[in-house]
Design a protein that fits this description.
alpha+beta, 3-stranded antiparallel β-sheet, disordered C terminus, transmembrane
Amino acid sequence: MITDPWFLIAVVASFTGYAIYLAGLQRRLVEPNRASWLIWSSATLVEAFTYAAVNPGTPQSIVFMLSAAACVMIAVALWQRSRWSAPDLLEGICMGSSLAAILLWLVFREAFWAHMLVVAVVPVSFWPTWRSVWGDRARERSPAWGLWSIGDLATLMLATRTGGQDIGEYAYILVELACHASVWFMIGLGTVNPLRSFGWREGRLRVLDVYAPANPFAVRETHLGKAVFAAQPFGAGDEIVAFTGRRLPAERLPRRLIGQADRFVQIARDTYLGPSGGIDDLINHSCAPNAGLRFTGDTPVLVAIRDIAEGEEIAWDYSTTLADAQWRMTCTCGAPECRGIIAAFDTLPPDRQRWYLSRELVAPYLVPNRSDVAA
């Protein structure tokens, strides 16, 4: 039976899927849900053993054993690159059900009911992944889901060829097929072109395309009010966001700007960039910034001046665009090197001015006047 073509299709499709998914995980091309994979790795282990106990000697039990090992590998790889966070209620229910299945099997030796309990747990365990994909289907945009669906279908065909009629023989396969196919549908088959689920975009096949979140930013409250945090890692030199507000002459600025009401950025000696209504309005100042404003064209762009980790606040030094000697603001950024005051660029220490100038993070209109510190 191991030479059965359906068995070979099931093994090749399933484990090609696992290999592609693991490669995508290592290269940060997918952003899977940790809880789902933790549950799947434990559930598939239980399922593999209970299926073999309920249906001894079947080749599909070999497929389940190999799948369980692959799930554990992915769960370990995912956990190594993750930070701990407590499971929510639904995830806790899934984990508890998996534990109950293990106890049923080990303590009471009730393989059939342990098997059926895991079958019931599987669709519940998919909920965190469905929730993630619903919010941003790029998180799971991998051809693995299509390959797993094909592997499940081949396993189902293999089960029918063995002649078994017991519900326990088919339940897990059918549930797995439905769950895998549902994610496949959400990331690819739900679009006009089904090949998108295999990475077909812009006229060519991209099996391991780069994951880009739908929204690379998160807005949270801090001691300064609203602040912008990275929802994905940024590498040094990466463009973060363009500043796109309306340009205003200095004489048209509001006379009194206090705290968060001041969303104006000086971009020339007599010109300011007004609020855009976008994420750039909420990016705070820091005396030890991880980003800086670069003027390489008509639109200033915020770039990362060092690697920015996911979850880190994004901030830049407001003084790098300021020339107005009358404008000052108390700084409470909290950095060890906090200057206490945000003021014009020429109030910065000369070594700090040189540091910004050498990285082209100073508004161009300020540069010609800085020959004394540019060396």
